[in-house]
Design a protein that fits this description.
Elements: E1 2-7, H1 11-20, E2 27-30, E3 47-48, H2 59-78, E4 82-83, E5 87-91, H3 97-110, E6 116-119, H4 120-126, E7 136-140, E8 144-146, H5 148-161, E9 165-167, E10 172-177, E11 182-186, E12 189-198, H6 204-209, E13 218-228, E14 239-242, E15 252-255, E16 261-264, E17 268-269, H7 280-293, E18 302-313, E19 319-322, E20 329-333, H8 339-358, H9 381-390, E21 397-399, E22 404-405, H10 406-414, H11 422-429, H12 442-453
Helix pairs in contact: 1-5, 1-8, 2-8, 10-11, 10-12
Length: about 475
């Protein structure tokens, strides 16, 4: 019997787990995939929104602004990449100036600091590559960019270090109410908990509806993206938005914390909760609409395209709180944009509710910090040489595009909640994220995974499950 079970190991589940690890409680995270950060959290815009877009009074507005304020300190404590690069919402027609002014006033109501409406000349002075027909823009200096993989992994690792258990490759199939708590029947056995937190992303409605007569409905909203090479990363310095519409914030153009340029997303409602395929139509829309806001986009520098799903709940707001007819069952559902920005505050809110509901007491030995993987290319020449002398694996380059060493990959596999697949290594180290998209480094990374985990090469997967990289081969020859 656990005190708390969290369903889902995306940013919301991991943030909640980290916050709950501050207290004396037996906590477990159950995740149906083979790793953390395998759903919405792995494929998004990686934007820490300032908080001017959400309607005042909503949870989105409140938690966006609070999460944005928390992100800087969290990045320092947990050692993940985060930068306040600021954002611009472009106005390209004088007739739309009232909408831009309304967005500014909404931001003031929500508590966003430092915003200004800039003239055409001021916008072009900041970002010379935005469209020539810009007439004004809303500037929000508190907007930022983050690495969503590092954020999610850092939260989960710190939770694990503080005693939270993680159960991967485990799908919740049924939930039964007990006299005290709940019984979760999964494809890997039965788990029991006094309290359950539902942070299951696009599946959060299915989990909720297992215990409640008051149903909720989540629509997967697909967004297509194009990722450009680092040679295009300086085309803009700030995140560039168009004025938002009813389907969201539209196509954005933004640098990433790792120096690439990201363009997207579209917003297409789909039925398939695993439907992360890109479409030609979607990618054409990305290119066309991005070009309306930023000129001379070097789209020949695209190195990959991908799609992600947002968990859009019919009420168009986050759904957080105890389910009305299911005591001690806490929803953390409908976490779409601005979910990344909000996740520190989401975790804080859910954990405080569980703490108060269950009377949890704080630990005296909570560890608030975590160190990420050592990156030799960020060290001085003297520091790097000393590291290589101590461990020669840090002198062996495996991924030439991103200059990732064998030492970093070994660390990614051996550290808490370590990588078990090629994608797990990729999200922790960036090996395979460069221009060749793992064409060069994947065989060597597979060799390291097989050696470190004492497995056959034919058992190594791209992303767990049946996604084996080698098929139809005699295992004895590998």
């Amino acid at each position: 019997m656990y005190d708390v079970i969290i369903i889902g190991a995306g940013v919301s589940g991991a943030a909640t787990a980290r916050e709950l690890s501050r207290y004396q409680a037996k906590v477990c995270v159950i995740e149906k995939e083979e790793d953390v950060c395998c759903g919405t959290s792995k494929a998004n815009s990686a934007i820490v929104h300032a908080g001017y877009d959400a309607a005042p009074g909503t949870l989105k507005a409140k938690l966006n602004v609070r999460g944005n304020q928390m992100m800087g300190r969290l990045a320092e404590e947990l050692d993940f990449a985060f930068k306040r690069n600021g954002s611009l919402v472009l106005c390209r027609d004088e007739e739309e100036m009232p909408a831009l002014q309304a967005l500014y006033e909404r931001g003031l109501t929500n508590g966003v600091s430092g915003m200004r409406i800039l003239s055409r000349e001021e916008v072009l002075a900041l970002e010379p590559n935005v469209t020539d027909d810009v007439c004004a823009a809303l500037y929000a200096p508190t907007g930022g960019i983050v690495c969503p993989f590092e954020l999610n992994i850092a939260l989960a690792e710190n939770a694990y270090t503080n005693g939270v258990e993680f159960q991967f490759d485990t799908k919740v199939e049924e939930i039964i109410k007990l006299e005290e708590g709940y019984e979760l029947r999964t494809d890997k056995g039965i788990f029991q908990a006094k309290c359950v937190v539902n942070a299951a992303g696009v599946y959060a409605d299915e989990i909720h509806n297992m215990v409640s007569e008051k149903k909720i409905h989540i629509t997967p909203r697909r967004g297509d993206y194009c990722l450009l090479d680092k040679s295009a990363g300086s085309h803009v310095e700030r995140t560039i938005f168009a004025l938002p519409g009813k389907m969201g914030k539209g196509i954005l153009v933004t640098p990433t914390v790792h120096g690439n340029l990201l363009v997207g997303p579209t917003a297409v409602d789909v039925e398939d909760k695993e439907g992360v395929n890109t479409t030609g139509e979607g990618l054409e829309q990305v290119i066309e609409k991005a070009g309306m806001n930023v000129k001379n986009l070097p789209m020949k520098q695209v190195i990959t395209s991908f799609a992600g799903l947002r968990a859009h709940e019919d009420g168009d707001d986050f759904v957080i709180g105890e389910v009305e007819d299911a005591e001690n069952f806490i929803d953390c559902a409908g976490i779409e944009s601005p979910g990344i920005a909000s996740c520190p505050a989401v975790g804080e809110m859910v954990a405080q509710f569980v703490r108060d509901r269950m009377g949890l007491t704080e630990k005296t030995d909570f560890i608030s910090t975590r160190k990420g993987i050592v990156k030799p290319d960020t060290l001085s020449k003297e520091e790097r040489n000393a590291l290589i002398r101590e461990n020669p694996a840090y002198g062996s380059i495996v991924c030439r595009c991103e200059m990732i060493t064998e030492g970093e990959i070994i660390d990614a596999i051996r550290r808490p909640l370590g990588a078990k697949s090629l994608d797990g290594v990729k999200r922790r180290t960036r090996a395979g994220m460069g221009r060749c998209q793992s064409g060069f480094c994947s065989p060597r990374t597979m060799e390291i995974l097989a050696r470190e985990q004492n497995r056959s090469m034919s058992d190594i997967t791209k992303s767990g499950g049946k996604s084996r990289m080698i098929v139809g081969t005699n295992k004895d020859t590998l």
